[in-house]
């Protein structure tokens, strides 16, 4: 801390100042990122463990700025939320990921699905359901191939409003996935009250499956709950053969993770699909 006058002390220390400046930099460049075409989408395949085939993808945003370089989503999504820039960015993500899926369907890969991360702020917009409906109509894709991933933290706020919108989306035919399952405060409450189709077990549980008996039990339990409720259960962040085998043994429906495939740009996804019989 620096001294500023006799009794005053500036409470910002250097690292904090740095963080504030960094956020300001991110915000400044984020404002023009869409128009300057600085975003890209990567797609991470999900492996269906019963068919041993790719069943679909999760769209993951990437941002490369000429001045800041590559900025990971964990660094800029919160800034995008604070500034409400997530609204146009989220719309861009939805539209482009669905367009890519449509392209794959037109190429003959007609059963593939697309999962899209949705921010709380998007869900809270009055026109969110309309925006989704319009996008689906514009692209002419059956809603059943689209899954919106929401995180538990999203749901803490305006619970009833959000529940209503999710029911509306479900009625349209869109699937809802509960992302990062098990990391929030009221996972089971959400599971009971919201129209969830898919449960995504968070990576923190998968990570130590082989060494941590508790994680093993919790993972097993989450798969069991999900399956008993008729949901599709997806395990995230699967990195080892051992993790995959454990999940397979307990009949987890799908896995996503570096072991099977990392997130790839669209041209590499097409190559990957074409290589497969
Ligand atoms: P998430 O939705 O939980 O996405 C999973 C993250 O885990 C992704 O990080 C993915 O690249 C990474 N991942 C997948 N498999 C593995 C693995 O085997 N090992 C490890 N270590 N990591 C793995 P990413 O792409 O950096 O995204 C981070 C977070 O940013 C996402 O977490 C999501 O919350 C958010 N995000 C990404 N794209 C979007 C978007 O388009 N919209 C919104 N609202 N949020 C997004
Ligand atoms: Ca996700
Ligand atoms: Ca997740
Ligand atoms: Ca996450």
Topology:
Elements: E1 2-3, E2 9-10, H1 14-33, E3 39-48, E4 53-65, E5 69-71, H2 73-82, H3 86-106, E6 113-117, H4 120-124, H5 128-139, E7 146-151, H6 159-172, E8 175-181, H7 187-193, E9 198-201, H8 203-207, H9 213-228, E10 232-235, H10 241-249, E11 254-255, H11 266-275
Parallel strand pairs: 4-6, 6-7, 7-8, 8-9, 9-10, 10-11
Antiparallel strand pairs: 1-2, 3-4, 3-11, 4-5
The chain binds ligand C2E and calcium ion (3 copies).
Could you describe the 3D structure shown?
The protein has 277 residues and is α/β, with parallel strands linked by helices. The chain contains 11 helices and 11 strands. It has helices at residues 14-33, 73-82, 86-106, 120-124, 128-139, 159-172, 187-193, 203-207, 213-228, 241-249, 266-275; strands spanning 2-3, 9-10, 39-48, 53-65, 69-71, 113-117, 146-151, 175-181, 198-201, 232-235, 254-255. α3 (86-106) packs parallel to α5 and α5 (128-139) runs parallel beside α6. Residues 44, 59-61, 72-74, 77, 90, 93, 117, 119, 179-180, 236-239, 256-258, 263 line the site of ligand C2E. This is EAL domain-containing protein. It comes from Defluviitalea raffinosedens. Residues 23-277 form the EAL domain.
Name the descriptors.
single chain; 277 residues; alpha/beta; eight-stranded mixed β-barrel; 21% strand; disordered N terminus
Cα gyration radius (Å): 20 Å
Let me know the average pLDDT: 92
Ranges with pLDDT <50 over ≥5 residues?
A: 1-5
Q: Looking at the structure, what is the overall shape?
A: globular
SS strand fraction: 15-25%
What portion of residues is helical? 40-55%
Oligomeric state, counting identical vs distinct chains: single chain
């Amino acid at each position: 801390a620096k001294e500023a006058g006799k009794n005053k002390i500036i409470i910002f220390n250097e690292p904090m100042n740095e963080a504030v400046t960094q956020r300001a930099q991110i915000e400044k460049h984020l404002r023009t990122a869409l128009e300057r075409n600085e975003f890209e989408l990567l797609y991470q395949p999900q492996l269906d463990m019963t068919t041993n085939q790719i069943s679909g993808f999760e769209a993951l945003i990437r941002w490369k700025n000429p001045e800041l370089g590559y900025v990971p989503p964990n660094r800029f999504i919160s800034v995008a939320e604070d500034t409400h820039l997530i609204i146009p960015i989220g719309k861009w993500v939805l539209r482009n990921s669905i367009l890519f899926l449509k392209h794959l369907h037109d190429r003959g890969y007609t059963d593939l699905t697309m999962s899209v991360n949705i921010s709380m702020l998007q869900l809270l917009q009055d026109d969110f359901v309309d925006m989704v409906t319009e996008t689906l109509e514009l692209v002419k894709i059956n809603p059943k191939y689209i899954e919106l991933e929401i995180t538990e933290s999203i749901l803490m706020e305006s619970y009833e409003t959000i529940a209503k919108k999710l029911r509306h989306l479900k009625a349209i035919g869109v699937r809802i996935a509960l992302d990062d399952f098990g990391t929030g405060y009221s996972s089971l409450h959400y599971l009971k009250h919201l129209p969830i189709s898919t449960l995504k077990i968070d990576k923190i549980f998968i990570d130590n499956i082989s060494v941590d008996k508790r994680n093993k039990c919790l993972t097993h339990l989450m798969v069991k709950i999900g399956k008993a409720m008729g949901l599709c259960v997806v395990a995230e962040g699967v990195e080892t053969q051992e993790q995959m085998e454990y999940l397979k043994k307990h009949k987890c429906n799908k896995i996503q993770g570096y072991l099977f495939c990392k997130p790839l740009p669209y041209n590499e996804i097409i190559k990957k699909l074409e290589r497969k019989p």
